[in-house]
Amino acid sequence: MRRLIAGNASLREGSPKGRLVALTFDDGPGPYTAAVVSALRQLKAPATFFEIGEMIPAYRTLVANMARWGFVIGDHTWSHPQLTLLPTAKVIRQIASTRNLITKITRKPVQFMRPPYGAQSARIRTLAGRLGLVTTLWSIDTTDWTRPGVTVIVARALAARAGEIVVMHDGGGIRSQTVAAIPTIVRALRARGFRLVTLPQLLALAPPTRLRP
User: Fold this and answer.
1) Is 170 a catalytic residue?
2) What is the mean pLDDT of residues 89-99?
3) Which of 9, 94, 107, 149 has the greatest CB tally within 10 Å of its CB?
């Protein structure tokens, strides 16, 4: 983490070492988050969730339990704006308020910030870094938010190679297709010899070999 922050870099993927894949979920918590979490827990599959701050109070107990169950909770800003269009003071408020609320509820430090829409810049990375957060993107986008069908979501997730970060969504709309896709994705990745990890595990076991903006 320190290396990424010091290099003003974003996290997009790890290295191929160890055949690791990180599943991540955006835009929660919401009505489908509990079902996503339940599916992952049944499969003993770790994951990282990027939460929207203004959504958290309605799901406070669930978020606390997710952290207790071993899921990693990341910062997805307070209200999901495009950060690159905001002045610095508002960017800091969007990120810091969410980080602080997550820490208060989970009693664990927040390490990762995913900018909405993947919109980031050197300024955004610097501001996140000052708050102790790694700006985090992805290398495999399932575009599940478009509800393309379970088969399509599965196929896109299974394009992952060792070290890749897969993005899906547990909030922001109807996510029944994502919930239905999870068991097949997890079992198929494991059948191909991949180990599923959280983002802290990915950084610890297979950090990226080069820094990228």
Assistant:
1) no
2) 98
3) 94
- Decide: 1 and 145 in contact? Cβ < 8 Å: no
pLDDT at residue number 74: 98
CA atoms 17, 112, 147, 121: torsion sign = negative
Please tell me which residue in 75, 144, 169, 170 is annotated as part of the active site. Answer: 169
Give me the chain's average pLDDT, please. 98
Name every residue whose Cβ is closer than 8 Å to that of residue 122 and which is 6 or more positions away in sequence. Answer: 8, 213
**pLDDT tens per residue, range 156-188:** 999 999 999 999 999 999 999 999 999 999 999
Residue linked to tokens 């800003």: 77
Q: Decide if 152 contacts 177 (C-beta within 8 A).
A: no
- Enumerate residues 6+ apart whose C-beta is below 8 A from 165: 11, 12, 13, 14, 21, 22, 24, 136, 137, 138, 139, 140, 199, 202
Give catalytic status of residue 169 as yes or no.
Answer: yes
Q: What span, in angstroms and rounded, lies between the C-alpha atoms of 100 and 77? A: 11
pLDDT for 27: 98
Among the listed residues 26, 75, 144, 170, the single catalytic one is 26
Helix, strand, coil share (%) of the chain residues, nearest 5: 45, 15, 35
Contact, 171 vs 55, CB < 8 A? yes
Q: What predicted TM-score, i.e. pTM, was given to this entire model? A: 0.98
pLDDT band at 84 (very low <50, low <70, confident <90, very high): very high
CATH topology of domain 2-205: TIM Barrel (3.20.20)
